[in-house]
């Protein structure tokens, strides 16, 4: 597998709103490659909406697109990467698991984060 973060340049200042989804992507590189992939995919979509013309934006977005392309090749056998409907179901299930865990922690009176 490739280096999860790849050779992605530093986040341009205009893309600061993308920092959260890129952080989620990095946290899930090993734990859940599907969440990692689609978080970065979303970052590219939003990045293109924010700025697709400045040199630093182009450099960052092209590097991120290259990462996505390479990762998609590596994970070509994972239907949650190659099929958006399966990906949507995967991510919804993941979010539901997180919600259920947080709910159980709340009901148990565990407030550590």
Structural summary, described in words:
There is one protein chain. With 113 residues, this protein is mainly alpha-helical. It has five helices and no strands. It is globular. The mean pLDDT is 92.
The profile of the biggest β sheet is: none
Rounded radius of gyration (Å): 16 Å
**What is the CA–CA distance across the termini?**
32 Å
User: What structural category characterises the helix and strand content?
Assistant: mainly alpha
What is the arithmetic mean of pLDDT?
A: 92
Oligomer: single chain
Order of helices and strands: HHHHH
Shape: globular
In DSSP terms (H or I, runs of 4 or more residues), the helix count works out at: 5
Proportion in β-strands: under 5%
Low-confidence stretches: none
Helical percent range?
Answer: 55-70%
Q: Strand tally, please?
A: 0
Question: What topology emerges from the helices and strands here?
Answer:
Layout: H1 19-27, H2 33-50, H3 55-74, H4 79-82, H5 84-107
Helix pairs in contact: 1-2, 2-3
Index terms:
113 residues; 66% helix; 5 helices; 0% strand; mainly alpha
Short structural summary:
The chain has 113 residues and is mainly alpha-helical. The chain contains five helices and no strands. It is 66% helix and 0% strand.
